[in-house]
Amino acid sequence: MKIAVIGLGSTGSMALWHLSNIPGVEAIGFEQFGISHGYGAFTGESRLFRMAYHEGSTYVPLLKRARALWSSLSEISGRELFHNFGVLSTGKEDEAPFQRLVESVERYELPHERLTAAQMRKRYPGLDFRDDEAGIVDLQGGALRPELAVFSAIETAKANGAQVRDHQKITSIEDNGDHVVIQAGEETTIVDRVIVTTGSWTSELVPSIAPLLEVRRLVLTWFLPNNPVDFQPENLPCFIRDRDGFHVFGAPCVDGYSIKIAGLDEWGVPLSLDPPMCPR
Ligand SMILES: Cc1cc2nc3c(=O)[nH]c(=O)nc-3n(C[C@H](O)[C@H](O)[C@H](O)COP(=O)(O)OP(=O)(O)OC[C@H]3O[C@@H](n4cnc5c(N)ncnc54)[C@H](O)[C@@H]3O)c2cc1C
């Protein structure tokens, strides 16, 4: 069976890697830009990976599996794709996000530490904590290196025999029942199945789902701290604050000198409503 993956970002690169492991499957991946480019949802140095999950404990089994797969890809590629810095999640103890965090660590007996505001102030002098705030340090969490991860998954897929066509923007997909015709401009490829992982570009390729999608830009920022020592990974884990409807997250100095912070004025609602600024 010949299976195409369209869009080699976070999801597509991993799909291609897994397909390339299945005997009898001929995997072929298409990417409109270069491999591990700078325009995807995956870009920006680090992505927080958490096991203590304020979204709900239902996700924990999936996260356990994901963590094992990140280890496996790190081992195969010989690259450190995951830094086990830990993740500090803070919030008000009586608010739902914090209660879901507690439920996820208790239900699945995840290794963690529970801290008061006073303890957090002492341990993490670079951050500011309110008196009514509590924290949970997820000891299995940390920062993924997304550009390296995408690159490594594609590289591994290629080593397993997958074909990769970069700088090929797919312009149409036509399902003909027993086969699918994929068009990249003038070039046609015929496959048995297609996996569409085009992220925020999906409305262009699958117009029928356009009414369900609204593309917004999520802004990441890096700052040079006055005292960089407080923000080094050995002194500060990744961090998330969820309180009063405000969500902020960041990572310690992965590059040794700058701290990454992103804030949303409400969970899930990005600050900027502009569409992504990338070449079309
Ligand atoms: C700023 C920011 C911070 C985030 N922080 C976190 C975090 O800390 N932890 C976390 O778990 N998640 C985080 N996320 C979410 C996570 O990064 C995304 O959910 C994930 O990267 C989405 O992956 P994707 O494969 O859907 O999209 P993408 O990674 O964007 O991949 C889509 C790919 O499809 C390609 N493509 C599109 N159209 C075509 C076409 N027609 N032909 C060929 N190729 C095409 C694109 O070029 C791109 O490479 C964050 C997201 C953002 C934006």
Automatic annotation (TrEMBL):
Keyword Flavoprotein carried by entry: yes
UniProt keyword annotations, A-Z: FAD, Flavoprotein, Oxidoreductase
A Pfam family the protein falls into: DAO
Gene3D superfamilies in UniProt: FAD/NAD(P)-binding domain
Domain of life: Bacteria
UniProt GO MF annotations: flavin adenine dinucleotide binding; sarcosine oxidase activity
Sequence ranges assigned to domain FAD dependent oxidoreductase in this UniProt record: 2-261
Keyword Oxidoreductase appears in the UniProt entry: yes
The enzyme's E.C. designation: 1.5.3.1
Cofactor: FAD
Name of protein: Glycine/D-amino acid oxidases (Deaminating) or sarcosine oxidase
